[in-house]
Amino acid sequence: MISEPVPLTLDLAEARRRRTEARWRYLKDSYVLWRRNRLMVLGTSIILGLLLVAALAPLLATSNPYEQTLRDRLLAPSAQHLFGTDGLGRDIFSRVLYGARVTLTIALLVAAISTPPGMFMGILAGYLGGAVDEVLMRLADIFLAFPRLILAIAFAAALGPGVENAIIAIAIAQWPSYARLARAETLNVKNNDYIQAMRVLGASKMRIMAGHIAPMTLSSIVVRMSLDMGTIILTAAGLGFLGLGAQPPMPEWGLMVADGRQFLVDQWWVSTLPGLAILVVVMGFNLLGDGIRDVLDPRQRQL
Question: DSSP 3-state assignment of 91?
Answer without folding.
Answer: strand
